[in-house]
Give the backbone structure.
Amino acid sequence: MRSRAAAYPLLAVLSWGVMFPILASALPRVDPLNLTTARYLLAAVILVGILLLREGVGALRLGGRAVEVAVLGVVGFAGFNVLTNLALEHAAPQQIALFVATTPVITQLVRWVRDGVRPKPLLLALSLVALLGVGLVITRGSLAGVGQFGLGGLMMIGAVLGWGIYTHGAGRFGGWSPLRYTTLTALAGTAAMLAASVLADGIGWQHAPGAADLVAVAPQLAYVVILGAVVAVLAWNTGVQRLGAANAALFMNLVPVTTFAVQIARGYRPEPVELVGAAITIAALVAANLVTRPRTASAYQANAVTDPVAVIDPVAVVRAR
């Protein structure tokens, strides 16, 4: 039974691992901000439709929490996704995937800052080891490559930090279903991205895509919206519900593995030091997840109920209740 449940998060992380090379392939035709906006306009429509079907029109009310929803939507959805797509112009997809895999650890650190819940010293040590592995991949083991970390790496640190804040913020919406929280914050983030896109197009920082550009990237958009933003997220949260967040979180470490495999299949030949760095990062993140797993059956059950968003794709937390 548990092996069947494991198929859900496995489907999700494999879909997300493939997503980064697909997004990168669309960037030559559509600017990062416009691509992100187009993706989430489509995803938001789908999420609103699901929410209306499941919970009715009343679920669209903000209940006096408009400011909080707006901030979390902008920081989480807009911040993470815009910075990730911008970073893909400066870093390879496999490097971006390694940063994304650090989300569980970053979320623990955000919890420490905001709630005073100090993580275990071993978790902090493993976090540094994971970042060392990322550094090896980006620099290829050479000090001369430190400059390659540059802007793309800084963007991804900001992106993952923003998503950690968003993930942590979900805990303050215990009276809302994850689907409602996800949809309303997604709408806020999408509105911010749309406004930013219009401004960026207006001042010439980027250029609005033409019909030919949108047609050219239609297959990529179809994948990242339907599979990356709907099917994968629903599969992920089904796995979280059946396995618990701590166990499901371990599957996130397959994201960079999948991305590396896709890049290699496309002709990329990683140097040995990159493979060593990736292995170090993944091993450290697996160990960090094991450190934070609940030790008892009762703790496990509590985690499965109260922590539904330990590690998630930036598009949604759609675990039906």
